[in-house]
DNA sequence: TGTTAGCACTCTAACCGAATGAGTGCTAAC
DNA sequence: GTTAGCACTCATTCGGTTAGAGTGCTAACA
């Protein structure tokens, strides 16, 4: 069966109508469109063909049609291809209120990402999800030991990509301030610039040798460093706009709402599932669309997810995902994400200067 | 109308039955109880009285009765009073899996609080909520400036109660390492031990005087300190177990679920509402129960909230709240919270040593 | 050969009325 | 003071009917 131009028009018309209403769309509705002034009977014939091709289905015998995953896929691929062709269409989307983010001093990247998730959620009416910055090859930038109270020190660990973690260490022994300074110096000299793999036994042995009596401190600091690295490995995830799923009845029927909200709350599973999605094609914009069953999270098989990868330079990167019903407005979501990514690039480039 | 012993027994029986089933309870059900072996007719007479007293209502004419807020209030007050009398009843609650928390090195208080919220939620099947540690009179413990890259420094601000915040500062000028160290020293000398109010213009003037050329750095650091203090003022809030509300149909009918989830996601409002709840009576355990309309959050008027205050010493404290339907198991919740608080005290005392 | 009108058919959603049953309030007897 | 009995109320359930949306098919039309 051939998918000629008219069939494609009808398919798109069905998809777009269904996006707006959420109701199965019938032949009469389509035949009223400017573009497709045929009688309902003609449309019906075409629809029967589209159904045979697996692009649309009827929920029950006497209902209108709704798109299948395959139908959406066709639609999305076409749209992405067209967007790639006309690179800057300068569509008049309502500008995202990103100025706030830009003007504010960004002291912590993660805070900004959370804020961004909120803005995206409010703007799209879908749920958003951001994985924290992450790098398989992140390196230790430096660390800083400071005395706190008797027997307690603060160890600040800074990884490449401005990932900063605090650790309060309880020591059994006490340590002089000057000794701590020296330890600080030694540790930085030995460890700065190394990745987790590079901090091996020989480095550690050297360190303990040099540290002399304060081996306990060294090993606790090393533990803290290791934990910081490994925490980096388990993608932290922020979500926003979870309640937006209630806008879409097809996502909230039965226990679905509960399951979805649970998944969003158990961010860990979510993070590793989404985080592990590799961008298959090395497109520069790096936007991926997962429709229905393509989503690698069970409770989201009725959803679509659009992801984009942001990069902080130095190999540190993370993902932004937008989760909505399969009938989400892919066009708007993809464009909003693209805009967001260029904003982000602007911010990070500015920071990098 | 007098509330005699038998009426009270019946009220409690209604409450406890309704807790289990969530269905209005009728006279037959009550009359089958060991304790209340009267005919349904007798029970009905008593129920009519209880209804007249405003302690129970029927949802519709031919239905059983459910407790009113006033009824719950009576029940809860009695229970709390009895618990106060017999201080350590050593009820055989399934021990909370707090050992994990105890044995793990706690490097960040907030992480532990989040974990605790999760455990509580899983254990009670209600939603939990924790406000981060907070103090109106917290003081600057110390701060630590470290060089990062050209023109960027890391300022770690530590407040009393081990509240640690990182700030990455972008400088217009560059600064030598040794100069930074000196600034670090000066800032600490002048600021350590001061509260937000105590860092006034005269202190700042002195500082800028002493700092000489590096006024920009000083003022940016001061900004960071101010922000850390003020962030402290806007209670951070963690929630867990939000999906548990789906277990209780009376909370999920209509748009209620959506509203509740939204409230939980917008943690700020929640935080200030809950955080501002003062403990009216200075009871040592400091457990408060808010029933229905007593809850100061609009979307939670169908819920009850039980809160407890934890304290990290030094005036730093926060609140733990358990949110559930009005028919929640107050007994279990209060006991679980008490147990949790004593665990917490154990942990913090240990840390304080 | 593509398009359209007409028609029988299907299925859902909404509505209706009767039956069911849980539970009540009241009265009168114990 | 307690209880048995009874009439009554009301939510829920179920079957049956209807209305409406939409389809598929056939036959006529251009």
User: Under the CATH scheme, which architecture of the largest domain in chain A would be assigned?
Assistant: 2-Layer Sandwich
Q: What is the structural class of chain A? A: alpha+beta
Our count of domains of chain A comes out at: 3
Distance between the termini of chain A: 56 Å
Widest β-sheet, arrangement of strands of chain A: 7-3-10-9-8
Regions of chain A with pLDDT < 50 over 5+ consecutive residues? 102-106
Number of helical regions of chain A: 13
Q: Sheet bearing the most strands of chain A, described?
A: 5 strands, antiparallel
Name the CATH superfamily assignment of the largest domain in chain A: GAF domain
Query: SSE string of chain A, helix = H, strand = E?
Result: HHHEEHHHEEEEHHHEHHHEEEH
Q: How many β-strands of chain A, per DSSP?
A: 10
Shape verdict of chain A: elongated
Query: Overall pLDDT of chain A, averaged?
Result: 85
* Chain pair forming the biggest interface: A-B, 34 and 34 residues
What is the share of helical residues of chain A?
A: 40-55%
Describe the protein's topology:
The structure is a homodimer of 353-residue chains.
Chain A: H1 5-21, H2 27-31, H3 40-52, E1 56-57, E2 66-67, H4 69-85, H5 99-103, H6 109-124, E3 127-131, E4 140-149, E5 152-159, E6 163-170, H7 177-191, H8 201-211, H9 215-233, E7 237-240, H10 249-252, H11 256-265, H12 267-275, E8 287-291, E9 303-311, E10 317-325, H13 330-352
Antiparallel strand pairs in A: 1-2, 3-7, 3-10, 4-5, 5-6, 8-9, 9-10
Chain B binds a DNA duplex (30 and 30 nucleotides) through helix 3.
């Amino acid at each position: 069966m051939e998918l000629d131009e008219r069939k494609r028009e009808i398919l798109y018309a069905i998809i777009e109508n269904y996006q707006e209403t959420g109701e199965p769309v019938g032949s009469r509705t389509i035949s009223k469109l400017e573009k497709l002034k045929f009688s309902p009977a003609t449309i019906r014939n075409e629809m029967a063909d589209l159904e045979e091709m697996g692009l649309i289905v009827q929920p029950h015998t006497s209902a209108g049609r709704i798109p299948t995953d395959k139908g959406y896929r066709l639609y999305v691929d076409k749209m992405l291809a067209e967007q790639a062709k006309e690179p800057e269409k300068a569509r008049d989307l309502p500008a995202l209120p990103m100025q706030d983010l830009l003007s504010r001093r960004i002291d912590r990247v993660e805070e900004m990402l959370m804020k961004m998730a909120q803005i995206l959620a409010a703007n799209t009416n879908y749920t958003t999800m951001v994985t924290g910055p992450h790098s398989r090859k992140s390196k230790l930038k430096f660390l800083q030991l400071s005395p706190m109270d008797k027997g307690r020190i603060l160890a600040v660990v800074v990884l490449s990509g401005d990932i900063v973690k605090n650790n309060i260490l309880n020591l059994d022994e006490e340590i002089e301030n000057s000794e701590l300074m020296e330890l600080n110096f030694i540790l930085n000299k030995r460890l700065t610039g190394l990745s987790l793999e590079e901090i091996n036994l020989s480095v550690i042995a050297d360190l303990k040798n040099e540290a002399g009596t304060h081996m306990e401190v060294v090993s606790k600091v090393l533990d803290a460093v290791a934990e910081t690295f490994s925490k980096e490995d388990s993608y932290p995830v922020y979500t926003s706009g979870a309640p937006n799923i209630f806008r879409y009845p097809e996502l909230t029927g039965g226990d679905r709402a509960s399951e979805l909200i649970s998944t969003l709350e158990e961010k860990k599973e979510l993070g590793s599932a989404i985080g592990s999605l590799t961008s298959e094609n090395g497109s520069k914009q790096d936007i991926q669309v997962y429709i229905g069953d393509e989503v690698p999270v069970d409770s989201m098989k009725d959803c679509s997810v659009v992801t984009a990868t942001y990069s902080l330079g130095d190999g540190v990167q993370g993902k932004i995902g937008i989760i909505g019903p399969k009938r989400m407005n892919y066009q708007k979501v993809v464009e909003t994400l693209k805009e967001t990514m260029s904003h982000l690039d602007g911010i990070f480039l500015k920071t990098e200067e």
